[in-house]
């Protein structure tokens, strides 16, 4: 209960930070976008990872106002970054299950876009398979509404849920993000390598982009390039970082 009180206060006072992890277009070596990852800096100076408070925010409903703040802040930050760039960056924001079920989700997204001036096609929303498993038709309907706005949808942690291929075919999503657990042991575990290979082929067959998460080594990078994986993300490319640091990173990466 104490943590909940603290979290509620932090949400009301908007005391969170966003870190951004660059996403690399593998074929060109260019940074094409960033994923926004929320952090909670606490009074004692420690930084809480989302694993430590997103579940509580979900349970308490605080994820709704928090998620609204995250979306708006991420859009605003990327608008600021793009003012200094030739090729605009895209921004990916994680959506939680509770947010996905909100009646006014479309309204909330529209508001963030309108208030920040971010072009809709530069926004990507990351969903997880588990969000789509309850009422599949309802989930497809919600995804279609979001797609109708002109943004991009991706399935995060792909391969760890239970979505069947027959559903996947019906989901109006643009990208599959291979879960980092499959990328981690790519070099040693032939089964993981086979799964990554299969997801790359699946994406190609279904006309979806494939993003590999958790790339930590050159060997993993080379393997993914050979499979024509579209996009890479991971410590090998860059860690999640505060906005100011991202600006430096982007300046050096051009
Ligand atoms: O870096 P990392 O510790 O940032 O993130 C841990 C987990 O928390 C990941 O599963 C990630 O998807 C989730 N997460 C990070 N930021 C957000 C956010 O802004 N909203 C939601 N719903 N989940 C997030
Ligand atoms: O579930 P989601 O994919 O949104 O969460 C991303 C999480 O993965 C964040 O916690 C982020 O900090 C973490 N992450 C990103 N790149 C790497 C990596 O190369 N290695 C590891 N171990 N974690 C990573
Ligand atoms: Mn994600
Ligand atoms: Na993931």
UniProtKB/TrEMBL annotation:
Top-level taxon of the source organism: Bacteria
Signal sequence range: none
Span of domain EAL: 1-254
Designated name of the protein: Diguanylate cyclase/phosphodiesterase with PAS/PAC sensor(S)
Organism: Magnetococcus marinus (strain ATCC BAA-1437 / JCM 17883 / MC-1)
């Amino acid at each position: 209960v104490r943590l909940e009180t603290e979290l509620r206060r932090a949400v009301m006072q908007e005391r969170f930070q966003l870190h951004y992890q660059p996403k690399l277009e593998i074929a060109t070596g260019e940074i094409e976008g960033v994923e926004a990852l929320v952090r909670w800096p606490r009074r004692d100076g420690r930084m809480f990872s989302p694993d430590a408070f997103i579940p509580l925010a979900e349970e308490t409903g605080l994820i709704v106002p928090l998620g609204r703040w995250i979306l708006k802040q991420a859009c605003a930050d990327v608008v600021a970054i793009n003012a200094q760039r030739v090729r605009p960056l895209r921004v990916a924001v994680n959506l939680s299950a509770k947010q996905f079920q909100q009646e006014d989700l479309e309204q909330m997204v529209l508001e963030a876009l309108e208030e920040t001036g971010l072009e809709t096609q530069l926004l990507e929303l990351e969903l997880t398979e588990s969000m789509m498993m309850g009422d599949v038709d309802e989930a497809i309907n919600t995804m279609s509404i979001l797609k109708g706005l002109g943004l991009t949808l991706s399935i995060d942690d792909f391969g760890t849920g239970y979505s069947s291929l027959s559903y996947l075919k019906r989901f109006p999503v643009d990208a599959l993000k291979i879960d980092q657990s499959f990328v981690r042991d790519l070099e040693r575990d032939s089964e993981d390598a086979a799964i990554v290979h299969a997801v790359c082929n699946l994406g190609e067959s279904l006309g979806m982009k494939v993003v590999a998460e958790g790339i930590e080594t050159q060997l993993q990078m080379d393997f993914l390039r050979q499979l024509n994986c579209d996009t890479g993300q991971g410590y090998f490319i860059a860690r999640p970082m505060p906005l100011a640091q991202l600006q430096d990173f982007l300046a050096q990466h051009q």
